[in-house]
Design a protein that fits this description.
The structure is a homotrimer. By secondary structure, the first copy, chain A, is an all-alpha fold. Chain A has 17 helices and 3 strands. In chain A, α5 (about 130-150) crosses α6 (about 155-180), α6 packs antiparallel against α16 and α9 (about 255-280) packs across α12. Chains A and B meet through α1, β1, α2, α3 and α4 of A and α3, α8, α9, α12 and α15 of B. Chains A, B, C: It is a multi-pass membrane protein.
Chain lengths: ~475, ~475, ~475
C-alpha cells in the first residue's frame, strides 16, 4: 500500500526516466574515458616480472599492493559502511542514507580515478593506476559523502549524482593546487577532504534553503534502532580512521606514525565528547547525536599533522580540543546556523568536518612550522616534507605558511564551487521532493509495509489506516 | 508465549535429538579425519626456521601469511557476515539466515579443508595446510551459502548440514576437474563457486518444490529494519569482493590486478543496477531487492577474468552488463522461474550468482583466448596462465576452449549433483517445516516476545492476542 | 517525552557534573603523563631511515607495521564493534552497551599504553610505542570489556571508568608477573585477558549484588532486532579471533600457526554449541544466547596454546569441548550462580570467558609440557618458548608447571582485585540506578520517542500514554 500524499504536492518526484538516463549516460561516459585513458600501472600490469628486474626488487612483497591494500580496504569500509550507516540515524531515511551514499560513491570513485589520474598519474597519454589511486579515489568521494551529510533527506538521487560530478572535479583541482602548486602536506585530508567537503556542502545547503522544512520535522528525529544502526557507521569510521590518515603516507615510519597519532587523537576525543555531551544537558544525559559524530572529530583534526612528528601527547591534546569544539557545535552552533544563517545541516557536518577540518589545517601548519632536523633526523626531515628538487630550500616556517595558504584556498574553492553547484541543483528539473516529504524514503524507494506503520496510522488520524 | 500453529500441521520439526546427533557425529568424524590427515604446512610449522634457510628466504615477511592473511580475513567476513546478513531481509527469518549460515559454514570449512586437501595439498599421506587452504575452504563454503539462498526459509538445519556435506564434496571434485584436469584459470570462482553453487541450489530447490508455499506469503517480505540489516551484508560483500577475487591469485601483479578489475566492475554495476531498478518500476522507485543483490553481480562476473589483463574499461563493461542482467532477472525471470518451472528461489540466486556466473565464465574464456605475449609480456604470459610443464604448448585459443569446457562441466556437475542431493533432502526424516510455517524463525529458534508482536496480533483477528 | 519513574526512586543518577569531571580529569592526566613519558618507538619515529641502516634492513616492508597492522585493526574491531554490539542484546540497553563500551575502551587504551609501557617498553625514562603497544592496549581493554559484561545494565558510566582505571592497572601487574617473572607464554590471553577479566568481573558483580533486581526482569530480555544487532558483535568476534590470538605472536610461523589453530577451534565450537543448545531444550529449539556467546568459547580456549604446536585436530578437540562446557554453563551454571552464590552475570561471562579461559590455561600448560625438539625442530623449540638467556635450561615440563602457576596467579589477582574494586564501586557516590531502572537506557541517555513505545504504553496501563 502506498502512503497518501498531501494534495498540495505539485512536485514530480518520479525518477523513472530521469535517473536511469543520468546513470546510464554517465556510465557510458566512464567506459569511453576509461577505454581511452586508463591502463594498469607497472605494479599491476602483467609486465611486472620485467619491472621487478628493472627496479632491482627481489620479492613480490615489495609490490605496493602489500604496503597499502589492507589500509585501502579499511578506507573502503569507511566510505561505504561508515558514512552510509552513520547517516541511517533518521527514522524513515535509512534506505536513502545507505543507498544513495552507495550510488554516489560508486559513481564518484570512477570519475575520481579519471580526474585525479589526469592530474597525478598521467604518463604518455595514459592514466596508470594502482592501489594508491583507488585510495585517493575513495578519499575524493569521502568529501562528497561529507557534503551529502548536509543535504541528507532533501535532495533527489539525480541531484546527488550531479553534485558528485562537479564536486569530484573541483576536489581534484583544489587537491592539485594544494599538493602540487603549494607543495602542501595533507595525507589525511584535513584541508582537501574535510574543510573543502564540509564548506562545499554547507554552501550548497544554504543555496537550497527550504523555508518550510519544519513541515517534515517529525521525520527529522531518530528511533531507537536507527540510532544503533548509526553507531555501526560511527564505530567503523572511528576504528579505521588510523588507516585513513596513514593510507597514502610514505612507506615505513610515516604510515606507522600516522596511524598511532590518529589512534591517540581519537581516544582522547571520545572522553571530551562524553564529558561535554553530559555537561551541556540539564539532566546530564548523554546525547546519541554527539556520540555518533563528535567522537570522530579527533580523526579529522589530525588529518594533516598525523604523519608529522605530532607526538602522542600532541595528538591527545588535539583530539581533546576537537571533541569539545564539535560537541559545543552541535548544542549551540547548529541551531544558530539554521535560524540565523539559513544553513540547514542535517547531519551537522559543520561540527564534525568543517570546524575540526580547520583545526586540522591549522595544527598541520603549526606542526610543519615547528619541525626541526633534530626532531626528524636529517634524512627524515627531508623525506617527511619532501624538501627535494625545487623545494630543497624551503624552511619549516615557509612550509607552515604554505600550509596555512592551503586552508584559505580550500575554503575559497568550497564557497565558490558550492555556490555554483548549489545554483545548478536549484533548477526545478531534478525531481527533489516537497518540504513535507523530506526525510522520507517512500518518495524514492519501494518501502515495505511494516507492522509498526499500522500503529503509526492509528496514532495519526490524518492518515487513513491500512485496509 | 508460543504462537499457535495451524491444527493441520502434521510435520515434526522438533530438532532435539536429530540436530545434536548430526552435529556431534560429524564433528567427531572431523576430529578423527583431521587427526589422521591434517598437519601444518611448512610455513606454519615450527620447523619454519629451517625451511627459511632451505628456501633461501631472508625475512619472515616472505611467509605466505603476510601475502594472503588480510585477504583471507576479508573473505571470512564475506562468508559469515556478508552472506549471513544479506539473507536477513525476511521479516521473521533473521535468526535462521544468520544462524544457519553460521552453522553450515562452520561445518563446511572443516570438511572443505579435508576434501580440497586430499585433492590439492596431499603429501606423504598428510594434508599440509596454510592460509591458502583456509581461503579455499571459505571459497568452497561460499558455494554452499549461495545454494542456501535458494532454499532459505524452507529447510531444516539438518537438511542444510546434509546438503553442505554433499555439496562440499561435489564442489571439490568439480574444482579438481577444472583446475587440474582442464587446467582452467578461475581465481575468483565464477565457474567453480558461482555457476556451480547457484545451479546446484536451483536444482535442489526445484526438487524440493512446495506447491502450497503461498500459505506463508505474508512472511516472504521484508520490514524496514530487516532491509537495513540486509544492506550490511550487501556492503560487506561489495567492499571486500576485490579481496575475494584476488585472494588466491599469484603474488604480486596478479593479486594487484584482480583487486583493481573487481573494484572497477563493481562500481559500474551499481550504476546500471540503480538505472534499471528505477526504469522497470512504473513509479520509478528503487527496489531494495535489486540494490541488495544486483549491485554484487559485477563481482561475480569478473571472477574468472579479474586476474587476467581484462583492463579497467573491460571491467566497467562487464560490470555494467551484469548489473543490467541481474536486475532484469529479478523483475522478469524470478517470477517466470517460480510460476513456470516451479523453481522457488528465495533470494534470487539465479540473478545474483547463476547468470553473472555464466557471464563470468564466458568473459574468462574470451579474455584467455584473446591473450597475447605483447599484452602480458613474455614472462607474464607464461606466469598468468601457468603455461609450464605439460601445458607449455597451450595457446590462448586452446586455453579459451578449455575455459569454456569448464563452464559446461560445472553446469553438469551442478544439475546432476543437485538432483541427487535434492532427492536425499526430500526424504521425510529431516524435520523440515510445513508450507505455512516457512520463513518463520519460531519453528527452530527460541524467539523473544516483541512488543510489536502484540500489535501484530491485534491486527490479525485470526490469531489470539497474548494474555 | 520523559518516561515517568517510580515515586520511590531515591537515587540520584544525574551525571551532569560528575561524569564530565571524571572524564576531563582523567584526560588531562593522560595528556600530562603522555607528555612526560610517551614517545614514538624506533619504527615510528622519523629517524627510522637511520634506524634501518643500523638494523641492516633493506626495505620499509620490514617495519613491524606491515607484520602487525592488519591484525591490529581486526583486534580493534573486536573491542569496539565485537564487544560493543555483542552486548546490545538487551531490548532497552543498546545505547549503554555500545556507548559505555566505547567510553571505557577509549579511556582504557590510553591508560593501558602507560601501564603496559612502564612494564614492557620503558627505555631511558621514556615509553617507546609502536603498533605492538596498540595491540596490547586493546588486549588489556578487552579484559575490561569482559568484566563489563557481568555488570552490564547495573552500573553508571562513572563506575565503569573507575573500574577501568583499576582493572587496567591490575591487569598490567598480573601480566608482568606472568610474562616476565614466570616467563609464561600467553599470546592470546587465555589467562591474562579471559581468566583474569572474567573472574575480576564476577567478583565485582558479586560485591555489587542487587537483591531486588527482579524488579527490572522485564527489561533483561531481548527483542527480535536486538538479537540481530548482537549477532553482528558475535560474528566479528568469531571471524577476527584468529587475528586476536596471532596478533602479538612472533613473526612468521608463529603468527601463521596461531591463526590456523584458532580458526579450527572456532569452527568446531560452533557445531557443539548448536548441538547442545538444541539438546538442552525440551522442544529442541536453538537459543540465541548460546549462539551469540558459546560459539566464541573456542577462541578463548586456545588463547594460550594457539601459537604452540597444538595441531589442527588438537584445536578441533579443544574447540568442541569448550562449546559444550559454555552452553551447559548457560543452561545450568548461570541460574545456579545467581540463585545460590548471588552472582548476577548479565552476559554470562562465566560461560564465555571464565571457564573457557581456565580450559585455555590448562591446555596451554599441557601443550607446553608435551613439547619436544622433535616436534618443533631445534631452533623452533627455543624460539617458540623463548628458552634463551636465563631460561635456556628450562624444560617443557617445568614450563608446563609455570604455565599452571600463571593460572593460579591470575585467579588470585582477579579475586583480590575484584573484591577491592567492587568495594570501591559500592560507595554511594557514583550515581548508579535503582534496581527497577536497571537495563534501561533512559537513565543515562536521551532516548528517542519510538512509535513502538506508544504501543508499549497502551499495553501497560500503569504507565501513562504519551500525549
Amino acid at each position: 500500500m502506498e502512503r497518501p500524499r498531501h494534495q498540495g504536492m505539485a512536485k514530480n518526484t518520479n525518477m523513472r526516466w530521469r535517473l536511469p538516463l543520468v546513470c546510464l549516460l554517465w556510465e557510458v561516459a566512464m567506459i569511453v574515458l576509461f577505454g581511452v585513458f586508463v591502463r594498469f600501472g607497472p605494479e599491476v600490469d602483467a609486465h611486472w616480472e620485467e619491472e621487478k628486474k628493472e627496479m632491482n626488487l627481489t620479492s613480490d612483497i615489495e609490490n605496493d599492493f602489500y604496503f597499502r591494500y589492507p589500509s585501502f580496504q579499511d578506507v573502503h569500509v569507511m566510505i561505504f559502511v561508515g558514512f552510509g550507516f552513520l547517516m541511517t540515524f533518521l527514522k524513515r531515511y535509512g534506505f536513502g542514507a545507505v543507498g544513495f551514499n552507495f550510488l554516489l560513491a560508486a559513481f564518484g570513485i570512477q570519475w575520481a580515478l579519471l580526474m585525479q589520474g589526469w592530474f597525478h598519474s598521467f604518463k604518455n597519454g595514459k592514466i596508470l593506476i594502482g592501489v594508491e589511486n583507488l585510495i585517493n579515489a575513495d578519499f575524493c568521494v569521502g568529501s562528497v559523502c561529507i557534503a551529502f551529510g548536509a543535504i541528507l533527506g532533501k535532495t533527489s538521487p539525480i541531484q546527488l549524482l550531479v553534485m558528485t560530478l562537479f564536486q569530484v572535479t573541483l576536489f581534484s583541482v583544489n587537491e592539485y593546487i594544494l599538493l602540487n602548486l603549494l607543495h602542501v602536506k595533507d595525507a589525511g585530508g584535513s584541508m582537501t577532504i574535510h574543510t573543502f567537503g564540509a564548506y562545499f556542502g554547507l554552501t550548497v545547503t544554504r543555496i537550497l534553503y527550504r523555508p518550510n522544512l519544519e513541515q517534515s520535522k517529525d521525520k527529522q528525529g531518530s528511533v531507537y534502532h536507527s540510532d544503533l544502526f548509526a553507531m555501526i557507521g560511527t564505530l567503523y569510521l572511528w576504528m579505521y580512521w588510523p588507516s585513513f590518515n596513514s593510507a597514502i603516507s610514505d612507506h615505513g615510519d610515516a604510515q606507522h606514525r600516522s596511524a598511532i597519532n590518529t589512534y591517540c587523537s581519537l581516544a582522547a576525543c571520545v572522553l571530551t565528547t562524553m564529558a561535554f555531551s553530559s555537561m551541556l544537558q540539564k539532566k546530564g544525559k548523554l546525547d546519541m547525536v554527539h556520540i555518533q559524530n563528535a567522537t570522530l572529530a579527533g580523526g579529522v583534526a589530525v588529518g594533516t599533522s598525523a604523519e608529522m612528528m605530532l607526538t602522542p601527547y600532541g595528538s591527545l591534546i588535539v583530539g581533546s580540543i576537537s571533541g569539545i569544539v564539535s560537541t559545543v557545535g552541535y548544542v549551540y552552533f547548529t541551531p544558530f546556523l539554521e535560524s540565523r544563517l539559513h544553513i540547514q545541516d542535517t547531519c551537522g557536518i559543520h561540527n564534525l568536518h568543517a570546524m575540526p577540518g580547520l583545526i586540522g589545517g591549522i595544527v598541520g601548519a603549526i606542526t610543519a612550522a615547528a619541525a626541526t632536523e633534530d626532531v626528524y633526523g636529517k634524512e627524515g626531515f627531508i623525506k617527511a616534507f619532501d624538501f627535494t628538487g625545487v623545494y630543497q630550500t624551503r624552511t619549516p616556517s615557509i612550509q607552515g605558511g604554505f600550509q596555512a595558504a592551503g586552508i584559505v584556498v580550500s575554503l575559497l574553492m568550497a564557497f565558490a564551487g558550492g555556490a555554483i553547484v548549489g545554483g545548478i541543483l536549484k533548477l526545478p528539473i531534478w525531481g527533489d521532493a516537497a518540504a513535507e516529504n523530506c526525510f522520507e524514503d517512500d518518495v524514492y524507494w519501494e518501502v515495505p509495509e511494516d507492522e509498526e506503520s499500522d500503529v503509526y496510522h492509528m496514532h495519526n488520524p490524518d492518515k487513513p489506516a491500512s485496509p
